[in-house]
Amino acid sequence: MSSERIAKLREEIDRMKKMTPEGFTDEKQAALYFQEKEQMIENIVKTLETVDDAVTTETEGVKDSVKSLRESMKHLEKGARQLTRKDAEAEIGKALCAAWTGDRTTLGELKCVPNLKSENWNNPSDFEWTREKGFVMRKKDTPVEPMGNMATNEQYLINPIYESIIMEDAAKKSVMMNLVSHIPMRGPSIWIPERDRGGVSLKWLTQYGAKIEGSKPNAPTRKELKAYTLAGFIPWYDEFEEDVYADLGKLFMSEFTESYGVEFDRQCLIADESPFTGILADTNATKHTVDANIKKLSYIDFRDAEIKVPAEERKDCMWFFSESILNRITNITDDEGNPIWRRPGDSMPGLVDGYRYQECTLLPGFSEVKEKTPFAVFMNPKRIIHGNRKGIEIKRFEDTTESLENGELFMRFRKRDGFMISRPKGNIVVMATGAK
User: How far is CA 392 from the centre of its chain?
Assistant: First the structure.
């Protein structure tokens, strides 16, 4: 590795040092924040392991910085203050009003920063607000010259702590968000190694001094996960500026989390157009075809579908279908009259044919299933990878037809995400009806 890559690692560590959250709404949120930062540190350490000996002195310096960062994170974790729910809602509402009116002083005090680039968004840790100079760029922990004339800038990245609070609420509105694999993204794309089973080659030595036969392991396939921008619009009224900040923050969080939670599930399960493909439309997933008449669905269909997944993968799998499909399943019995559905209760999850299940309203309902219709999925949800590129941008937005015709205004929000299905072939089964 060249000295240039060492320099990039130092820059990454410097950015992490500058992120100093002031509080969290609960212990779980704080734990997730510090867990994510620890994962980033581990990635830096793994990268260092590939550095050539020629830059040993430089790598030792980076290792010392990593050690120092870990110590500072420990102190930060102990000293993080507890925010009440009302506090968080009030601060988010205050930030929204400030972005709408262009109140840069309030935005700076709330640690929101201007977002000046369209593709490569600004990093909040690279900016600081000062009453003397306004927003300034940081350089080696020292504020430098002001950013310049921002009179025309209307888009701002909210405080990352507010983002954590909002996304925690979004997870409660989503079926899939707490089930899939999440990977933090610091760039527009990352390459993920995807290895088939048996990727590691093992050899037994039967006597001392025996020669180890060379063998070529099954090399992983590298797949690119790209993050794209998702935009949404919330109607805005001038009367909002007179509302209590907490009420406005609560309203925004409710609107954002409801729509984002549904969209997250859509991308995981049923998306069939650019930029991502959901599992029902994935042509690489294993298909299991049942009778064209959905009323003839039987326990044999579930057994045959499940057995198409290898046992080592099957133990982590679960069923996904709509509520009306579940209603049909509750009436299905095996040849001995035993129901294949077990209702949830006594701290035990509901089961279908011995496997957990999740209901999702986005999947086809019983009355919607005609011939050649995929309607249920059997999979380990961790096979769906969500690339989370941090940052929620808010902006006063007037360039709409509604604005021109009716004078209606909107607060636009943008977030960046990527979705990818890992190894669907032989690991994920989509159940669909056949032709008549």
Answer: 13
Q: What span, in angstroms and rounded, lies between the C-alpha atoms of 236 and 379?
A: 41
* CA atoms of 357 and 106, how far apart (whole Å): 46
**Closest residue by Cα to residue 380 from 286, 326, 309:** 309
Pair 289, 433: CB distance under 8 Å: yes
**Residues 338 and 354 sit within 8 Å (Cβ to Cβ):** no
Hey, which residues does 138 pair with through a beta bridge? Answer: 143
Both tokens of residue 378? 């059997």
Q: Give the global pTM.
A: 0.76
pLDDT (tens place) for every residue of the chain, 436 residues total: 456 666 666 666 655 555 445 555 555 656 666 566 666 666 666 666 555 544 555 556 556 556 655 655 554 444 455 567 888 899 999 999 999 888 888 998 898 988 876 667 887 777 778 877 788 876 655 556 666 556 667 889 998 888 888 999 999 999 999 999 999 888 888 888 776 665 566 777 777 877 766 655 556 678 899 999 999 988 887 666 666 888 889 989 999 999 999 999 999 999 998 899 999 999 999 999 999 999 999 999 999 999 999 999 999 999 999 999 999 999 999 989 999 999 888 778 899 999 999 999 999 999 999 999 999 999 999 999 999 988 899 998 876 665 556 667 888 999 999 999 998 999 999 999 999 8
The residue whose two tokens read 């900040």 is 245
Q: Are 386 and 418 in contact (CB under 8 A)?
A: yes
Supply φ then ψ for residue 359, to 5 degrees. -95, 135
Strand partners, 344: none
- CA 34-40-46 angle, to 5 degrees, is 135
Query: Does an H or E element contain 4, and which?
Result: helix 3-18
Q: Which two tokens stand for residue 113?
A: 């920063």
- CB of 355 closer than 8 Å to CB of 388: no
Residue 377: closest CA among 435, 421, 333:
421
